[in-house]
Amino acid sequence: MKKIPVLIRAFFVIVLVAAALTGCSKSNVQTPPPGSSDKAPGAQVQPAQKAGNYFPLTVGSSWQYLGEGNEYASFNRLVLFTKGNRAQVKSDNGGTVSAMVFETTDTAVTRVYMKGEEYGGANFLDAEPNENIIILKTPLETGTKWEDSNGGTREIVDVNAALDTPAGRFENCVKVKITDQYSTIYEYYKEGVGLVRSEFLSGDTSVTSTLEKYNIK
């Protein structure tokens, strides 16, 4: 399919960079009274997780990814600027440099601005938004699903994914499945780290980018 190489390049020019579901409490009630929670005594209760926790965006934080299957699959990211709940990330895959602005809240991480071929390092935090792509949203649980403004669908399909990478082993990752008419993409996010791995699948084509090293400031 002639469109596939173009799709691969487009994806890895703008692909993102960011989960461990932690915290539990034990009930001391041995026999719950009528009308109370139907959870068994001693059951673990997971607190609500914030989407922004899986997308750390502090100035100077950086990520480097090792790619396989395409020349644009290896890339690095660096947080250049922050203001309020917005952060600008520089993405360089060796072929082009892009600027992306993300907005993080307790309930969602959204890419609100993107500019390709950006080599000057300008600050776009106050630029008029030109995108509205929700990267991750709550509740961070299997089955959470939303429409992509690009025409695709995103769904959390696992919250306990485990991956071995050059940067180490990451457990309890949130796995997001992104589908459109041409391809399927899987993205894995770890709380406090961000994007750990992305997998692009289309027909017989498979391209991956895996975290090689990172530094969260």
Structural features, described:
The structure is a single chain. The protein has 217 residues and is mainly β. The chain has one domain (3-21, 47-215): YmcC-like fold (Beta Barrel), CATH 2.40.360. It has one helix and twelve strands. It is globular and about 35 Å long. The model is unreliable at 1-46 (pLDDT under 50).
| C-alpha termini separation | 42 Å
What is the residue-mean pLDDT, rounded to a whole number? Answer: 84
Integer count of domains: 1
The structural class is mainly beta
Report the principal-axis shape. Answer: globular
Beta strand %: over 45%
In short:
The chain has 217 residues and is mainly beta. It is built from one helix and twelve strands, in the order αββββββββββββ.
Name some characteristics of this structure.
twelve-stranded antiparallel β-sheet, YmcC-like fold, globular, mainly beta, 217 residues
Task: Set down the secondary structure blueprint.
Elements: H1 3-14, E1 62-68, E2 75-83, E3 86-92, E4 97-104, E5 108-115, E6 133-137, E7 145-147, E8 153-165, E9 168-179, E10 184-190, E11 194-202, E12 205-215
Antiparallel strand pairs: 1-2, 1-12, 2-3, 3-4, 4-5, 5-6, 7-8, 8-9, 9-10, 10-11, 11-12
